[in-house]
Amino acid sequence: PVYFSFIGDIPFYPFLALGYHAGAYLTTADSEKAVTPLFTNIEHDSLSDSAGIGPFTCYTDMNLITSFGNSLFFGNAGISRFGFGPFMGNGIALNDTCFHMAGLTYNALFFENFTYGHFYASIGATNNAGVEQNNTKYLSLHSVNWDITKNLSASFYEAAVFGRRNELSYALPVPYLVNEILTGVNDNIWMGVIGEYRPVNNLKLAFDVFVDDFAVRSLTLDDKYRLALQTGIFWTPETPFIEILSMDYQAVMPYVYTHVEY
Fold first, then answer.
1. How far apart are CA 67 and CA 72, in angstroms?
2. Which DSSP letter does residue 32 get?
């Protein structure tokens, strides 16, 4: 395949800018049937609606983001890949290697060491066979981060996956667990905690744990334990030869990413 792209930023005002990534790739293979290594996602944001150019098939690969705000309140809106958590490119709650989505984020800094972040997006929906579905599907996530010290921080977050209607109440800074009661208790709601510690410069230890269902009364093997955890270490040496060295461990219980409806 042959790939080319243009990447850049266009500032309009001190509080507004546009970022773009426009590309295309030519191939003789079928992108929808492309084989990728185990546990990896397709690199390009193109799966269908191709154009024929001679013996080649041309797929567009485009993302566009508008950024706004200042040092206290900022966000962005557009179509792009989004991620959350300390394990970028390998997270368990929102992985930025997934196919791009139309999303809106906004963030607020308050009391100097607290940050609130909110994400709301329309995502693609498929069944277990990878076949596209007609129903709409949405993802919303918000978090509160506390910089306890210069080297230690903690976060609490909630996430919601829902479908068949655009529920704008999930775009509000309110507890999802309470909001779900108002919408029928059919959505997939989970919550998690993140911790990050930097013992020395260029070294970081981190963990991420989120829970959907967890039985706290009987604690037997017959109960539902829908939870996932991840822990790891990152080293960013001051050398031009190594950008980052990292090692992490993931544990995901069965049916973590499934629910009654979604």
1. 14
2. G
pLDDT at 223 over 70: no
Q: Could you tell me which of 60, 43, 50 has the C-alpha nearest to residue 98?
A: 43
Residue type (1 letter), 50 = S
How far, in Å, CA of 210 to CA of 71, rounded?
29
Please state, in angstroms and rounded to a whole number, the distance separating the CA atoms of residues 50 and 53. 10
Helix H or strand E encompassing 58: strand 56-69
d(CA 32, CA 99): 13
Q: Residues 6 or more apart from 45 whose CB is under 8 A from it?
A: 61, 62, 63, 81, 99, 100
Q: Which tokens is 259 given?
A: 């629910």
Whole-number pLDDT of residue 104: 93
Structure tokens at 204: 């970081």
Helix, strand or coil for residue 81?
coil
The confidence band for 262, taking pLDDT boundaries of 50, 70 and 90, is very low
Q: Map residue 154 onto helix, strand or coil.
A: strand
Choose the weakest-confidence range: 18-32, 62-76, 83-97, 142-156: 18-32
SS3 179: helix
What is the H or E stretch that residue 101 is in?
strand 101-110
Identity of the amino acid at 109: L
* Burial per residue of 48-77, b for 16 or more beta-carbon CB atoms within 10 angstroms, e otherwise: eebeeeeeebebebbbebbbeeeeeeebbb
pLDDT tier for residue 232 given thresholds of 50, 70 and 90: very high
Which amino acid is residue 83, in one-letter code?
G
CA distance 46 to 68: 27
Is 0.90 topped by the overall pTM? no
